[in-house]
Amino acid sequence: MYFEERMKKIIRLSSLVLLSICVLVSVDFLYAEDNGVIQGRVVDANSGEYLPGANVVCENIQAGCASDKSGRIYISNLPFGTHKITATYIGYKKFSTEITLSEENPKLNMNIEMEPEQIRMGEILVTGMRVGQTRALNEQKSSEKIVNVVNEEQIGLFPDVNTAEALQRVPGIALARDQGEGRYALVRGTSSRLNSTTINGASVSTPESDMRALALDVMSADALESIEVTKAITPDMSGASIGGSINLNTKSALDYPGKILKSSLKGGFNEMSGKGIYQADLTYGDQFGENNNIGLLLNGSFNRTNRASENNEMDWGYYEDQNFWAPEEMELRHYEIVRDRLTLSANMDYQPNDKSHFYFNTLYNYYSDVEHSRRQNMEADEDLTSQTHIPVAVFGTELKDRTQNQTMTNFSAGGEHKWSGLELDYSIAYSYADEQEPDKLTIEYEMDEEPAVNLDLSDRDNPKWNLEGLASGYNWDPKNYALDKIAADTTKTTDQTYSGQINFKLPYFIGDRRASAKFGLKEEYKSKDREETVWEYGYEGDGDFLLSEFPDDLSGKILDGNYSAPLSPQPQDIRDWFVDKRGGPLLESEINYEDSYVADYDASENVFAYYGMTTVHMGNVMLLGGFRHELTKFDYTGYDIVFDEEGDFDGTSENSNTENFSHILPMMHVKYSPSKNTNLRAAVTTGIARPDYETLVPFRLIIREDEEIEAGNPELVPTTSINFDLLGEHYLKGIGLLSGGIFAKRMDKIIFPYQEEIVDPGSEYNGWDRETWVQGETADLYGFEVHWQQQLTFLPGLLSNFGLYMNYTYTTSSATVGEREDLPLAGQAENVANLALSYQQGGFNGRVSMNYNGAHLSELGEEEAEDIYYDEHIQWDLSANQQLTDQLQFFIQAINMNNSYLRYYKGVINRPIQREFYSWWMTAGVKFNL
After folding, report:
1. Residue 852 clears pLDDT 50, i.e. is over it
2. Contact 182/162 with Cβ under 8 angstroms?
3. How many whole angstroms separate alpha carbon 488 and alpha carbon 669?
4. Tens of pLDDT along 798-824?
């Protein structure tokens, strides 16, 4: 039944596309092309490389277009006669020529060959720089919307392995990191939930069970042709983009003038783990057919990183009677991690003529994270008698041994057609993602004594303790710890997305002003489910099963010598023992009903959207206006899990909920170009952000013994926003950009976690504590960003070989949450900045770069003193490349040279709750480019 339902939806989407093609073909017969057409490509005169984003204009009638990513141009409905054609491209001389169109020769095929303005360095280096920076800048310059573009060559200039880290160089983007690597992108102070991510313009599935945001560390940056970050969307884009829209473009063989073969091989060293880093990439593309109009491009990338980290954590409690804060729980952690990334893609293109283009793209990503987390903890079992004295403390150790695998598979097919000025594009896409933790083990031991503890808080980042009445080092002896319990956890999340969209674009005139109307629709079907099963095992043997049975090989000091390494059993030995004894008399098992049901759910979401927009060109002014209408249907199923007054499991029942939403999203863009290298842009847009999956699930965890409820909130509605943007940009000689702008957002119905006492006299839960998510009021966010990048070719001598890349974004926000006002939004860092200084001479290209994210709110507490903040992060990286031959290049990269670390604090900066260090790592290798 499930398969049949999905097939019906695929057939429905396919039929819609086929019907639209028939309509357009019919229109083509009725609308004869009785005017002139110019078509062809814009290319580099020396290398033959295609130049996307070139501005090509028929000056006498102000008709024109921007070249696409394959350098193609198509200008239709030109009157017969002689026309002056000009083309401009940053870093190149202006191209100008005259052409004649007539009834006898209505169509002109022409290649526009553009000459670089300066060739001061070796040809190889100039080409590399031009293909990278210049392509991205020209695509930004010619775009109708406010967008930042990062090209594949630019990505290669920084030591960024995954897609998230490549995005950190874009103005206004901060990263949420995991184990020292970038994972989620936060655009202009908005959380990852408020942004959308697409691949080649198609919706994608996400493997995470709780979030909508795609973890961008799953994909290798080397698989991408470009990344586009749209900060002010247009009606033909998904409306679920309050902060912005991130589009990842994979490579196509027809985007290159001929056969391509690129490969790289690198190895490296992680200082903290003392182990290796390995990566290999290969890209092959070629063109076939009589006219080289069939393209095939294959790409593969594999990366293995052996990582490690050291961590200490504290949980602070407040003692009101004595007016002090003190750490009630402390934990030491050491992580050993092996991460694998595999990205494979195969893209096929067919261009039967200059009017039509068909494509079929495939992309597969595999991400594996094998983690051994050793933890040693101390927890107060009675209230502290002073800020530095715990009368009774419990000591324990814990080993988490788990493998997390994520896969993401995407297929998309579509076409583009141009008939007599009419344009049609369409696509159908399928995306599948899953996340599995097949057999996660958590092994806990407890120390056999519960001593009093004296604390030393002279260094709050590294608090110390000593035990009263026990021998020195007692808590570091594995013979003093006995097995408490083992939890075996199996989790699987799957997500499937079917989508289809179609867009029409028609030219028309307002007086003598050229304009176009564009309209289309999109339908998307998503199904997501999560299932978890947790079994707990207790030891039933004679006596205690001691930690010393499987002594660990981890020893020495951690965290700059402040602590001994945490105690732990040897991971493989204890796993082998558990697998052998599980099911036998030594281990008694029972299911953990709370963890096994509370996070399980089934969900489906259908989104139907249609839009209309128009673009009008009036000399050097462009107006774009329109609307998008999105209709959403949610179907969610979760569970009630009940524990009785004795704390025993009392049963579970299923809950379902259906909701429908409708949002009309108007938008307006203005672009004014007072000169060929200057744009002034303004935009007023609207957007939505649907709630995260876990917040919508209709589940309830009811614990009668403690009179507590934890629940989802299926009545949540999407957050909405109205956004204002004003941006000025000037493109500089020497290949550069100077830009600056301001932005503001007014968000309504924000969502936040909330704890409350239930006030409902008629309910059995009156007076209970409830933890859930609630709909808040409005939030305002505003700020400004500035950006300067330039090759300093105007300076004398060796200074002319330097280049600068600098950006800074300031953001502030104010939200109302319950009775608290003027709160910052979660994820909103006040200051975000990038700085890079590069040097190029001969075949050498070196770059030192800095990335800075200011502190931001991570989690809202019940009051200001309990708010959790992510502390500021500043990281320095280094990369250098040396061209050895025309085809061969050597490179070296050093990352996190300043040992930047993760730090969270509670309320104020001198109450740290987590500090995690990663040290530095470096790689070196070679690149081959045919």
Report:
1. yes
2. yes
3. 55
4. 898 899 999 999 999 999 887 788 889
Last residue of a domain, one of 92, 110, 145: 145
- Statement to judge: residues 464 and 585 lie in one domain: yes
Could you give the CA distance from residue 775 to residue 826 in angstroms, rounded to a whole number? 15
Do residues 403 and 438 make contact, with C-beta atoms less than 8 angstroms apart?
A: yes
The gap between the terminal CA atoms of the chain, to the nearest Å, is 51
Check residue 393 and give its pLDDT. 96
3-state secondary structure of 478: helix
CATH code for the domain of 561? 2.40.170.20
Is 181 a domain residue?
A: no
Contact between 115 and 54 (Cβ < 8 Å): no
The total of structural domains in the chain comes to 2
Helices and strands (H, E) in the chain, number of each type: 8, 51
**325 belongs to a structural domain:** no
- Report the alpha-carbon distance of residue 778 to residue 749 in Å, rounded: 6
Taking 80 as the threshold, does the pLDDT of residue 61 lie above it? no
Q: Which residue has the tokens 């939403």?
A: 661
Can you give the residue range of the structural domain that contains 105? 35-145
Residue, of 225 and 610, whose pLDDT is higher: 610
Asked if 278 and 304 count as a contact pair (C-beta separation under 8 A), the reply is yes
Instruction: Calculate mean pLDDT across residues 827-832.
Output: 92
Task: Tell me if 211 sits within 8 A of 693, measured CB to CB.
Answer: yes
Q: Determine, yes or no, domain membership for 166.
A: no
pLDDT of residue 18: 55
Are residue 112 and residue 260 in the same domain, yes or no?
A: no
CATH code for the domain in which residue 130 is found = 2.60.40.1120
CA distances from 914 to 176, 252, 331, 460, 564 (A): 15, 44, 9, 11, 17
State whether 141 and 252 are in the same domain. no
* Residue 742 pLDDT grade (very low, low, confident, very high; cuts 50, 70, 90): very high
Q: What percent of the chain has pLDDT over 70?
A: 95
Q: How far is CA 265 from CA 40, 301, 750, 860, 920, in A?
A: 37, 10, 46, 45, 20
How far apart (Å, rounded) are the C-alpha atoms in residues 729 and 736?
A: 11
Q: Which helix (H) or strand (E) holds 139?
A: helix 135-142
Burial label for 453, CB within 10 Å (0-12, 13-18, 19+), is buried
SS3 call for 811:
strand
Residue labelled with tokens 């290398």: 47
Last residue of a domain, one of 83, 112, 145: 145
pLDDT of 129 > 60? The answer is: no
Tokens 């040992």 found at: 899
The model's pLDDT over 415-426, given as tens digits with 9 standing for 90+, comes to 999 877 789 999
Question: Tokens standing for 683?
Answer: 């935009």
Structure letter (DSSP) for residue 223: G
User: Is the same domain home to 132 and 259?
Assistant: no
Residues 140 and 261 in one domain: no
Work out the pLDDT band at 30, boundaries 50, 70, 90.
Answer: very low
- pLDDT value of position 4: 52
What's the CA gap between 640 and 647, in Å, rounded?
15
Instruction: State the average pLDDT for the chain.
Output: 89
Query: Does residue 297 lie within any of the structural domains?
Result: no
Question: With 60 as the cut, is the pLDDT of residue 283 above it?
Answer: yes
